[in-house]
């Protein structure tokens, strides 16, 4: 009995004093989170077989990559024939940069907790069976460069919060059941219709479909046959195309002469007064 107490005091001292204790706790927490995912997935090809929860951390597991502090930075499970659902505990992988789960048969919702993965660079959930909304919490992923959720069954609106992710380089929301307005401000000013193609009911300028209840896009101008004479002004240099500084043109007129350089400009751009 006495020895037992001595042992636990000793263990207690080791745990408290040891500088690696915190990273061990972290690693275990991350291992537990991933093991939780494993128990929630069907894995016919046994790609998760190495995910042994009795190991001190998940860093030796296949398809998992850690940094030097034994914290998980990548989960690579694309094309792995997995089905089942994700778990909220994935939000605990606080150093995760790559979550690659594309081309599986994973269903159910995208957990809101993925918005806690603030170091995430790439979230690839495309070609699965995800349903439900795109969580607005994903707008917190301020380092995200790749967000590919295409070819799922996601429904509801595109969260406005995503427009705050200025690091976003690749966005693919195509082939879902999204509806409502496609944002075109913030980071979304970069993206073209391809990112949003083949959804149920998206609207807004980028889709070419006005949203119900909102004013239509500026109507196309009535057809006017083009004038028979071409317009050299337009072609060779409105003011923005002039390379010669305006002050030089000014000077020439002030002194009642036109030098060669200026004449060239004037000659090709029509009436000089227009540009002064
Ligand atoms: C998803 O499941 C269906 C059958 O339910 C199967 O035919 C298909 O190959 C699976 N897809 C992937 C990517 O595993
Ligand atoms: C993780 O996300 C959920 C839902 O978005 C939130 O309620 C929770 O507080 C977050 N947890 C941490 C540790 O940030
Ligand atoms: C994504 O979905 C579209 C529409 O259903 C389909 O045409 C396309 O082949 C799918 N992409 C892939 C890579 O399967
Ligand atoms: C884009 O516009 C929406 C509302 O129209 C707003 O909620 C959102 O904050 C805007 N995004 C940025 C980055 O300004």
TrEMBL record:
| Leucine-rich repeat-containing N-terminal plant-type domain ranges (all copies) | 28-67
UniProt cross-references to Gene3D superfamilies, sorted A to Z: Ribonuclease Inhibitor (3.80.10.10)
Keywords, sorted A to Z: Kinase, Leucine-rich repeat, Receptor, Repeat, Signal, Transferase
Q: Which residues form the Disease resistance R13L4/SHOC-2-like LRR domain?
A: 81-175
Give the signal sequence positions: 1-27
Per the UniProt record, which residue ranges are transmembrane?
Answer: none
- Pfam families assigned: LRR_14, LRRNT_2
Alphabetized GO MF terms = kinase activity
Q: What is this protein called?
A: Somatic embryogenesis receptor kinase 2-like
Q: What organism is listed for this UniProt entry?
A: Pyrus ussuriensis x Pyrus communis
